[in-house]
Amino acid sequence: DAGVIQSPRHEVTEMGQEVTLRCKPISGHNSLFWYRQTMMRGLELLIYFNNNVPIDDSGMPEDRFSAKMPNASFSTLKIQPSEPRDSAVYFCASRIRGEKLFFGSGTQLSVL
Amino acid sequence: DAKTTQPPSMDCAEGRAANLPCNHSTISGNEYVYWYRQIHSQGPQYIIHGLKNNETNEMASLIITEDRKSSTLILPHATLRDTAVYYCIVRPTLSSGNTPLVFGKGTRLSVIA
Asked: CA of A104 to nearest chain B CA: how many angstroms apart?
């Protein structure tokens, strides 16, 4: 298996632009998580899905952030409009119920 | 979830054992201890987990005290590639469903040649 696949690996955009991050979980995994990592705040959970259904989005910082999981093999995290303080590394992770978590390589987002 | 306390940083000589401590004094009876590590510019990677018995796999050993209030991750022969941030996390047992992992600040381990 190729593992959790995230795209793009790097994204540079200007303030106010829409940003879409993509994630393909490991086949067969039924839970998907989005995390954000910054030097100041460390690794923060943004939202997670079980069986494609959002369970807890309390970590989503603002209404500018939204996440979807239209099917078991794809998820998106969208920021609209983006701001410089959104600059971070965004990780997607997946697992089978209760088992160990597998992370993708992350998307390095820079908002200028 | 129970909170954990780890030293912010540690050094270890290459080839020596690295012993990373974690305090989880408020752990509940149904909570596992998990260890992950994050090498620079990569996503976190699972290492090992345990409930109350000591565990060993190809990466590391996990020693949990009898009262379960603390644990130690042991890398028996540290290499330069083990330089990373190590996270100790406690979470409910598998039967409790898909609760997410909450990461603290971890311990930054530097393996020195």
From this structure: 6
pLDDT band at B96 (very low <50, low <70, confident <90, very high): low
Q: What DSSP string runs through A34-49?
A: EEEEETTTEEEEEEEE
User: Does the CB of B32 have a partner CB in chain A at under 8 Å?
Assistant: no
- Which one, of A23, A88, A101, lies nearest residue B87 by Cα? A101
Q: What is the pLDDT of residue A1?
A: 66
Q: Which of B79, B93, B88 lies closest to B106, judged by CA?
A: B88
Kind plus residue range of the DSSP H or E element containing B47: strand B45-50
Residues of chain A with C-beta less than 8 angstroms from the C-beta of B98: 30-31, 48, 50, 55, 95, 97-98
In this prediction, residue A88 carries a pLDDT of 97
Give which of B45, B98, B93, B32 is closest to A48, Cα–Cα.
B98
Verify whether the Cβ–Cβ distance A45 to B102 is below 8 Å: yes
Q: Do A98 and B95 touch (CB under 8 A)?
A: yes
Contact yes or no for B23/B104 (Cβ under 8 A) = no
Name B42's Cβ contacts closer than 8 Å, sequence gap at least 6. A103, A105, A106
